[in-house]
Amino acid sequence: MTTTSANDTRLLDALREVVDNATVGKVFGAPVEHAGTVVLPVAKVGGGGGGGSGTGPAPEGQENGGTGGGLGVSAKPLGVFVLSGDKVSWHPAIDVNRVVLGGQVVAVTALLLARALVKSRTGKASRRLRLRAPLPVRRQRFLPRVRAKAVTK
Questions:
Q1: Model-level pTM?
Q2: Which residues does 73 contact at the CB level (< 8 Å), separation at least 6?
Q3: What is the pLDDT of residue 55?
């Protein structure tokens, strides 16, 4: 058996083991029971893999070859089902890091928007207004007009 064939066999065995382990038992954890209440943990399990090989034309004096491979698996807790008597309730797992990151994104967006508003008020548009002559002041119509009466004796 050649070295390449032995490596390929080990790689295939590792891939089979990963695929066999990606079962429903990994998504729904082992139930925990206490005082008549059952807690069933739930997770999201995903994975992916890739591989490669190659024996393309090689320059004279060099040997053809090539290999490659990769595999990734992730698991993320989603929450728990709580079974108590005849009732079932869902309690989601809260990802505090995602909440904090979302708050930071909102804060940065708000700061950039506030900066843009301040710049637009003190920017070129307001400079143009300051350079123009002031508008004439007009008498407001809603104020009563007072006429001076001649006083006669």
A1: 0.44
A2: 18, 22, 45, 46, 47
A3: 76
